[in-house]
Amino acid sequence: MTGVLDRLFGVEGKQVVVTGGSRGIGAMLAQGFVEAGAHVYISARKADACDATAAELDALEGPGSCTSIPADLATQEGVDALAGAVRERSGGVLHVLVNNAGATWGEPLDEYPESAFDKLFNINVKGAFLLTQALLPELRAAGSEEDPSRVINIGSIDGIRTPAMETYAYSTTKAGILALTRHLAKNLVRDHVNVNAIAPGPFESKMMAFALGSDEGKQLVAGGVPMRRIGRPDDMAGAALFLAGRGGSYLCGETIVVDGGIANVG
Fold first, then answer.
1. Nearest to residue 208, comparing CAs of 43, 1, 25?
2. Other CB atoms closer than 10 Å to residue 61's CB: what's the count?
3. Which of 11, 59, 138, 231 has the fewest C-beta atoms lying within 10 Å of its C-beta?
4. 13 to each of 39, 40, 64, 124, 176, how far by Cα in Å?
């Protein structure tokens, strides 16, 4: 059985980039890849947090490793710096790019600022596009017909359904990253680069801290989930490893919803 699982979902030895990897969903994804034996590069805007998480993950048992490459992906300079550092360290080959870096903004409609749309579009959509573009040579070099390289964009169920909270720029940009996923997939599939997305529901992260920061808040949020719980690290890691392994190599332009049933049966 182990041989079948390794063949279908194994990523040992693969080179993986996870943006926004210092905390929350990004750290969950990075840990899953490290534990599966991948060589993971995490980026985040705050260098201290990025370095600390990378050191913690790099100390895990097994053949996987984790390297910190801090970068601000809301700017072209940050994108170029991260792409250059990955290119230098990976030997020009990248098997998996996880575009997870993101931000949110909540404010009443009458007061919602224009700057929120500028900030969130730059981080949630444009940064993911520019980094994918910058790393295309490495992704193309790693991909083959039998085992394509992968781009995994992290969206949100708020890009699929209408959220209750007044996070207008967030839901708009998360819908945008799902549309971008399909568009990139159409044009990169012929290069043996598969682009897919994951749309998470409630997971513990800085963006959800306002709702999940207390036991009462967690219970309230969990009560609105058909499965009656919030997401766990293995839920995110499992979806990403499926998309990154050979077992997920026939998926292209797809969005996997990981939300305990909220979007479809809630």
1. 25
2. 6
3. 59
4. 6, 10, 7, 29, 32
The sign of the torsion formed by the CA atoms of 35, 234, 127, 54 equals negative
The greatest distance separating any two alpha carbons of the chain, rounded to the nearest whole angstrom, comes to 57
Amino acid (1-letter code) at residue 62: G
Q: Are 240 and 29 in contact (CB under 8 A)?
A: yes
pLDDT tens digit sequence for 155-182 = 999 999 999 889 999 999 999 999 999 9
d(CA 239, CA 244): 9
Name every residue whose Cβ is closer than 8 Å to that of residue 4 and which is 6 or more positions away in sequence: none
DSSP state letters, 105-130: ----GGG--HHHHHHHIIIIIIHHHH
The residue assigned the tokens 């083959």 is: 144
So which residues are the catalytic ones?
Answer: 170
Contact 260, 226 (CB under 8 A): yes
**Which domains occur in the chain, in start order?**
11-260 (3.40.50.720)
